[in-house]
Amino acid sequence: MNIDIHPSWKPYLQTEFDKPYFKSLTDFVKTEYKNHKCFPKGSDIFNAFNHCSFEDTKVVIIGQDPYHGDGQANGLCFSVNDGIPHPPSLINIFKEIETDLGISYPKSGNLMPWADQGVLLLNATLTVRAHQAGSHQNKGWEQFTDAVIQVISEKKQNVVFLLWGGFAKKKKKLINAASHSILETGHPSPLSANRGYWFGNKHFSKTNSLLEQVDLTVIDWKLE
Prior knowledge:
The model has no long low-confidence stretch (mean pLDDT about 95). The chain contains nine helices and six strands. It has helices spanning about 10-15, 20-35, 45-50, 90-100, 110-115, 140-155, 165-170, 190-195, 205-215; strands at about 40, 60-65, 120-125, 130, 160-165, 180-185. It is an alpha/beta fold and about 220 residues long. Strands 3-2-5-6 form a four-stranded parallel β-sheet. A two-stranded antiparallel sheet has the order 1-4. The protein is about 35% helix and about 10% strand.
């Protein structure tokens, strides 16, 4: 696994790359990609960081696992490649944006334009074996991505963290609430959304309101 990550992150994460657990993780990922079909493709593993530099990061959305279906995962949580049908959670995200902001439902499920504006779309686990959800959990990725959240919390100010569902909410303990804003709601998956835990959270308008309060450019959530 090549650590192909935007240079802006290296001063903050190099200590993680040098730790024994990350060396073991690298060996594991290399072996998995060699012997099995895995997602996302190797060059996309660190896409979340490569499309959102440390300096630009002003919103963090935390996911759990990459999509494990063919052609879906592109290295950004909840995002799929152009031309790929939208998974159920992404459909519910777009529906909430529609009602929250009056933005029309997009054709593309590729969230790259959000990342390019400073939204870090961070999965807790950055790789997965094809068609085997959670297959790369507990191999070291979570330790690395927890460190990423802590670094952002310690070294930046006024970042908006969006914690969707029980798994993401557990990351709250890593974030200094005195320096940052934390918005919590249910997961956008149908199971949670259909029980009334997702729709109406207005996280997208609330995020922009919080960014405006600290004189940061708001996110244009509209996609094509």
